[in-house]
Amino acid sequence: MKCLVLPCLLVAAAACGTQADDVADDDEGPPPVIGTYKLSFGPITVAPGDEATQCVVLRLSNTDPIKIHGMRNLLSDGSHHLIVYKDDMSTAERATPENCQPFTGTLNPSGRVAPVMITQKADDALTLPNRVAYTFAPGQMIRIEMHYINSSDTPLEVSATSEFYAVPESAIDHEANILFIGTPDISIPAGATKDVQAYFNPSRAQLDLSGAQFFAITGHTHKHGTNVTVSTAQTAGGERTSVYAPSRFDWSEPETTVHAPGFTMPADLQAGFDIKCSYHNTSNQTVEFGESANDEMCFFWAYYYPSKGSHVCVHTTFQGLGFDACCPDLGPACDTISQKF
User: Fold this and answer.
1) Which residue from 141, 178, 262, 272 has the highest number of Cβ atoms inside 10 Å of its Cβ?
2) Which of the 8 DSSP states describes residue 24?
3) What is the rounded CA–CA span in Å between residue 319 and residue 138?
4) Does residue 146 register a pLDDT over 90?
5) How many helices (H) and strands (E) does the chain have?
6) Interior CA angle at 80 toward 74 and 83, to 5°?
7) How many Cβ atoms are within 10 Å of 185's Cβ, its own excluded?
8) Which residue has the higher pLDDT, 14 or 181?
9) 316-320: long-range pairs with CB below 8 Å, 24+
10) Which of 146, 174, 163 is nearest to 20 (CA)?
């Protein structure tokens, strides 16, 4: 897979990693799967050179609330990212793919459309820790967001399938969620090799992550990216604890690092995440932040529990000052910001 393009974010105005106890006893095995549900995007025919982000909204067949402990996404050629959302705003299905704005759900100030899994691989599975799940309502509406590009010289059939695995309610104690964190401060001169580094402080973004246990983390760039690392630190200049450092970073199918047990954030108000993205701009023009195949990103997403909401967060520098902010926490400003991208 080539140009993976994920959501575009905002421009706006802590976290030494420590090991935490697992949610389940070491002797406790995984809960039994009592139901499997499946939804599909497409197939659609994509003309040579075409690139777009399109969405469908579909209803699951469950008649009662269910606990989703695992998911799997299968992507065809040309599919460069897939985001699966729990959609508590839609009331009607929209089965025909239509153009949509990446991460519009998360930037929506209502907070009622939240990602549950982000996929960059042709075959990607997610199993949550024991006693952790997502709760789906009866007839849960699911939004599937696909970014695709046909870089070949012939038409391409693009499709995706999402599977959801339900377990007994008695096997679950905690609700899971996702954070998506990074920086839009990217400018890489033509032909240059460059690092972009940012320190995101949750407290400055009014995001309380005390007690949150992070169990899986994935780095993200576009095609000029050569590496992503993520660390936690007590302060911006303090000692780092690595939480994501793949031995070989592949921007098109980046490694997901699983932490078992998870790592937690300390209570220090200055603590935060340090993210560094490395690039080699092989083009003949400056590359900046954006969602297109020709733009770049520097982000990671992390799955965690117990849920304190789904958030898209950035660190950005404005007039020499660093600001940290999250959506949907900014309310109506998130809608305004999303239109810039």
Assistant:
1) 272
2) S
3) 49
4) yes
5) 2, 24
6) 65
7) 18
8) 181
9) 316/10, 316/11, 316/12, 316/183, 316/184, 316/185, 316/198, 317/185, 318/11, 318/13
10) 174
**Pair 249, 144: CB distance under 8 Å:** no
d(CA 16, CA 163): 35
Of 20-29, 49-58, 300-309, 311-320, which gets the smallest average pLDDT?
Answer: 20-29
Q: Is the pTM of this model over 0.70?
A: yes
pLDDT at residue number 105: 59
Domains observed in the chain: 35-172 (2.60.120.310), 183-308 (2.60.120.230)
Question: Cα–Cα distances in Å, from 319 out to 12, 19, 64, 178?
Answer: 12, 37, 52, 30
Question: pLDDT exceeding 90 applies to what percent of the chain?
Answer: 68
Which H or E run contains 314?
A: strand 311-318
List strand residue ranges (DSSP E) for 20-176, in order.
35-46, 51-59, 66-75, 79-87, 94-99, 113-119, 123-127, 132-136, 141-149, 156-167, 174-175
Average pLDDT over residues 211-225: 95
Residue 103, by phi and psi: left (phi above 0), alpha (psi -120 to 50) or beta?
Answer: left
Q: How far is CA 312 from CA 169, 249, 294, 297, 299, in A?
A: 29, 23, 22, 14, 10
What is the rounded CA–CA span in Å between residue 191 and residue 156?
Answer: 31
